[in-house]
Amino acid sequence: MKTTLKELRSAAGLTQADLAAKLGVSRQAVIAVESDKHDPSLDLAYRIAGVFDLPVEDIFDNPYRPKI
């Protein structure tokens, strides 16, 4: 699942540890999502979207969404 999380985090001036603390997850979890080694749960995806005040779709690319 393609993500813009790393770019958003950097633009917000947050470290991986800062974001992890805001989300209540480990820094390793943030690294895994940023590097596309792990797809976040729906709950985590919504928490990430809440931190950046963006819709989930603006952060994570849905590979199952038809291209129009």
Walk me through this protein's architecture.
- 56% of the residues lie in helices and 0% in strands.
- It has helices spanning 5-11, 16-23, 27-34, 42-52, 56-59.
- α2 crosses α3 (27-34).
List keywords for this structure.
68 residues, mainly alpha, 5 helices
Mean pLDDT: 91
Strand content: under 5%
Order of helices and strands: HHHHH
Tally of separate helices: 5
Content-based structural category? mainly alpha
Stretches where pLDDT is under 50 for at least 5 consecutive residues are none
Instruction: Give the helix proportion (percent range).
Output: 55-70%
End-to-end separation: 19 Å
What can be said about the biggest beta sheet?
none
Gyration radius (Cα, Å) is 11 Å
Shape designation: globular
What is the number of E strands?
A: 0
SSE blueprint and pairings:
Layout: H1 5-11, H2 16-23, H3 27-34, H4 42-52, H5 56-59
Helix pairs in contact: 2-3
Summarize, please.
With 68 residues, the protein is an all-alpha fold. It contains 5 helices and no strands.
